[in-house]
Each structure stands twice: as structure tokens, then as C-alpha cells.
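Weekly structure sync, notes
Attendees: PL, DS, HV (note-taker this week)

Item 1: Response regulator transcription factor
DS walked through the input record. Source organism listed as Shewanella youngdeokensis. Sequence as pasted into the shared doc:
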Amino acid sequence: MSKIIIADDHIIVAQGIAGLLKPEHQVLAIAKDGDELIELVKEHQPELVITDISMPGMTGIAAVAALKRISKDLKVICLTMHNEQEYAEGAIAAGALGYVLKHEATDDLVDAVNSVLSGQQYLSKSVKVADNSPSLSARQLSVLRLLVQGKSAKQVADELYISPRTVEFHKYSIMKLIDAKTSAELIQYALSHGLV
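Item 1 (cont.): predicted structure, written out as C-alpha cells:
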């Protein structure tokens, strides 16, 4: 019986997930946001975390990155309503092994848990893969999205657990890749490609 912690700011959703996993797995605790999730993981040391991406405060993807720094062996599944490719890529880049859509959780979640616990990656079948996807890495996409939200290099660095210098490097690399000369062009590119 594996030990699991669930994070979702909607307690009913979290309880529903817990119900799907019992009695085969032991749900140790439920967190309502990323900060509480990190504290609970430190306290309980689970084998697996199932986390929403959209939560108050620290996002699920930022929490995944933080959790992997606490324990590189911890396995993580992101459970979300976002079926866009860049969200899935961002989650995997942060260290998640599984990416499951909430509306498919009844069918997919148990399979995802079993796959991820055995060290295999699991993505919901209907996660969209864009045909005209820009050739940016998942990390570059994460940096770009936060910059477009008006965050400073330091704020982006804090959220992604990287240095401001690394943020500037990614920004420079993205601008070179998409041939943008200014931050305004960078924002326009992100908007026109549906990256924000």
C-alpha cells in the first residue's frame, strides 16, 4: 500500500480523488495549496504526490520543482483541467511523471498512479499537442509565461527556483530563437501563439 498526499484547493475534489484511490493506497493528508503541500511532504514523506496545477499562492508546477529538490525520489502526478501541451510540458520539466486531466480522472487516475509508482511516465490521452507548437523548451515556456504576466526576472527566478541570471539567459535565448528585438515583440509572440 503506497502512501500518497493530495493537493487541491477544492476539498470536495481532493476527497473524491482520495475515494478513488482507497483501499489500495493510503492517503496521508490533503493540502489546500502549494506551501501546505511542501510542509506536509516534509512531515509525512509520502511516495507519491497528486497535485492540482492551479492553486492559490505557489502554483502546482512551482510546487513540483520545490518537492523534487526536497526528495528526488518522490513521484508526482499533476491533476488538472488544462489539456494544453505547454502545461503538460511545464509539469514534466519540473519533475512530474504523470499528467492527468480532471475530467478523465475516473478512468485514468488509478492507471496513472500504478504507472508512476513503477517509474513510468503517464499522460492523459487527450492532452492536446499543438501542430504549430513553437520550438521552445518547457523551461523557456515557463519563463516566457511569467515574464508576459509582468513579473520581474527576480520574481520569475523565485517562482521557478532558478537564478535571475538564468532567467535572463532564457529570455535572451527565446528572443534570439523567435527573432524578437524587444520585450513587446516577445509578449506579442506569446499572445499570438496562445502561450499565455
